[in-house]
Amino acid sequence: MPPRRGGRGDGGARRRALPAAFLLCAVALAGCGTEPAGPPPPPPGAVPAGQAIGGAAIEGRVVFEGTPPARRPIRMSSEAVCRRPGAEALNEDVIVSSGGGIKNVYVHVLSGLGGRVFAPPARPAVMDQAGCLFVPHVLDVQANQSIEFANSDPVVHNVRAICEKNRSFNVSMPGKGKTVRRYFSTPEVVSIRCDIHAWMNAFIAVADHPFHQVTGEDGSFALRGLPAGQYVVEAWQEKLGAQQQTVPIAEGETRKVDFAFRAHTAP
Ligand SMILES: [Cu+2]
To answer: How many A from CA of 82 to the centre of ligand 1?
Structure first.
């Protein structure tokens, strides 16, 4: 016997579901239909942004050991404006300089700062969509720091943030000049994508303190202004995984710490 459809019971369920659906719409409109409210103010006693709390530093390089993977051209054939025959952008999964440094590694203090609370910088961090790529590819921000997403391309993009600990979102970026502000409150690495152009991906690394950096072309980093203590420092790379080192440091000391990755070291 085929299953019964559209019975009285189903209608009742639909009637009961309607108010819930309206409520969801109202919540969605309040949260996403207009620009959401800015981040909450820092709690009393938070260390102001930019205020030094120590004179120690952890500096070093992230390097690739062995032969780095070749970077492949990104085929932007589905979007005429993005297409650059003969001058295609290269994929940004693993970028190793001629000297072996790895670019775009997120280096941050994972633990050791105790219960200190840090106010985020007042200036927004910026992630642009330019040349049909997210720029920068890896952005480091502080929790509750405003992030301005911008579109510099004469095409429609979107920004989809895929979070585990923060609230995921998806906003349309309909053409050049569009900007949208968002923020994340909880430390994690958020995956960013454009659904229209499958090759467009990026990462936003969120920390609840200012001791973080994304390595430049030569793979170098410097975390300055730390108080004496024992820290766990982590280097995270989107394809190669994460490595941690425990770093004891005295007041005023500068410690050299290097990280070395090889292909396929991801867990
Ligand atoms: Cu796009």
So the answer is: 9
